[in-house]
Amino acid sequence: MPIRRLSQDALKHCLEIISRFDELAKYKRDYGEKFRTRCRTLPQLMEDVGIVATLAFAYAKASDKVRVPVEIAKKLGKEVREYRQGCVECSICDIIAGYLDGKITIEEVKSVLQGKFDEAVGYAAFLYATVQWLAQHCPVPRMGTLTVENLLEKISELSTTELALVMYFLRPMYNVLKELTDAKYGG
Predict the structure, then answer these.
(1) Residue 172: which residues within 8 A CB-CB, separation 6 or more?
(2) What is the CATH number of the domain that holds 152?
(3) pTM
(4) Cβ distance 158 to 166 under 8 Å?
(5) For 39, phi and psi rounded to 5 degrees?
(6) N or C: lower Cβ tally within 10 Å for the chain?
(7) Domain total of the chain
(8) 144-179 pLDDT, tens digit each
(9) Following DSSP, what letter does each residue of 18-62 receive, concatenated?
(10) What is the domain extent for residue 90?
């Protein structure tokens, strides 16, 4: 894939992510600021300590559990077997991915997050952008279908050469995402 096309695809991808995320950032400014911070720091952390360690760190930060009404959990595609008081536990990653995918509304996100979890929302949005980009542009066919939940498993199975190739394909998207979030959510 030519670099020019990759850069153009990165711009389109990032504009789509930010346009979907924008309503959430309007609801609470800190969500946009935390997303911006993650887009600025995590790509550099990947260069310093590696992609697997950085994505594991981001996933851990975005995996806070929150109680979600059964109806919302079903919209997110969660299997509902056991629940207490009409609620199921879901991660912030699930909530943000569900919202950005259009499975749940901004009102449902607001009712679940209740203006909390600023850090986790930023990490979850970054992971979502990464997974969606790799799902469309992954240069390693054996990674198969990617989700936020299976990203770490799939990426940790790659060879050093394959990881370098994945990073090569992520860089243009991360550069564009950093610039756009700086412009959109910067102080």
Answers:
(1) 3, 6, 7, 10
(2) 1.10.520.30
(3) 0.92
(4) yes
(5) -70, -25
(6) C
(7) 1
(8) 888 888 899 999 999 999 999 999 999 999 999 999
(9) HHHHHHHHHH-HHHHHHHHHHHHHHHHHHHHH-HHHHHHHHHHHH
(10) 3-185
